[in-house]
Protein: Sugar ABC transporter substrate-binding protein
Amino acid sequence: MSTSSRLLSRRSFGRLAAGIAGAAGTGALGACSPSAGKPSASAPLRIMAINHVWSQAIKRRTKEFEERIGRRVSLTLLTADQLTSSYNVKLNASGTDVDVMMVRALQDQLLFAHNDWLADLTDRVEGDSEFAWTDFQKAPREVSLTAGKVLSVPVVTERPTLYYRKDLVQDAGGPPRTLDALMSTALELTRRKRGFYGYVGRGQRNGAVSQWSSFLYSHGGDFVIDGKSGIGSPQALAAYEYYGNLLGKAGPPGATNMSLEQAMPIFAQGKAAFYIDADAIYSNFLDPKIASRTVRDTVGFAPFPAGPTGARPHNIASWSLGINKFSLLRDDAWQFIKWAAGPEMSAALQADGIPGARTSVWANSKTLRSFPPDLAEAMRLNAKRGLGYDRPRVLQVGRARDIVGRPLVAGILGESVRPVVRDADAEFADFLLRDNRHKES
Structure:
């Protein structure tokens, strides 16, 4: 399962996004027709989406939607890289051959808004009482806005979950509830010579940033504070040092090369006691094709542990739906979003084990039955406590993650983190100035 996959203050984010206010949209969705011509009745509604369990489930149900609107649906499933490349090619050319776009609000939306590629959905979502926009969780709903306009609708959410071995912590009273307890227990259980590790997690420079974010928030830090770099703060330094020690001393060799794809199998094969990653991947540890018998029998799920300022995990909209600004079928595209992200479909998909973005589906016991009970409770608590972003909210997200991730690598390698943090903080501060200038150009 793909996981993609946090919160500036409203005031600071308003400053960050102010430069793209004019580019984020030009009024109500149906108020303008940016491309000449009218599509025929036989023209399909074209949807481009990530090859994800959510979009696979929707694809199996498209006949129902086709009968509803009387138009054929063409749904193309791609990898994340293929999706990004396709958007760049099609939308740079003002292409009309994509109508509904599956996007990562945290990775893509600011840039897409800057390029004026996304239609403004504000009037649609707020003016449709059946759609119930306020039913969406606060954090995913807020990240759907850019410069005060709703540019996407969240459909899949994820949070970090503490995966652990029940058999290894039963004498300690259960899983660690604090980061201090996680550190001490992970170090105690580590047996490097036997190839067993107290903790495994992402350590790759860019890819680790999203998971490290929850450690940063729970230490009282943030990526950006009052519009300026926050990664040089004492709180961020403590989070860098903590994560470096945890993975460097209790983790497997080669951790700095590990993304989700490398870290997850180590826990799945019973070679680690603890693992923190997206809750969306939980089924891997129940799958006999992936997980060992020991892990399938003993895996437990717990909320993100509390740090010095409490438990502050991320709770993100990992994938959302938007409408191509150049689409000639914007009304039908909205009908698709209304159907695919509506209360009824959201409940049906969550009942099948796909985490949704609506408050109502998390409050309904029937929609949570497909999840293990301890996982459902962990997800509920993490959603309640969570911040709506897991990376810096900037135009050039990839470059920002590279900068922020550099001290993580130093810490894991056992190097002194403080000078690397100092250099990265200066680089990130300069980056934010340049990113803002680019945004306003």
Remarks:
- The two ends are 37 Å apart (CA to CA).
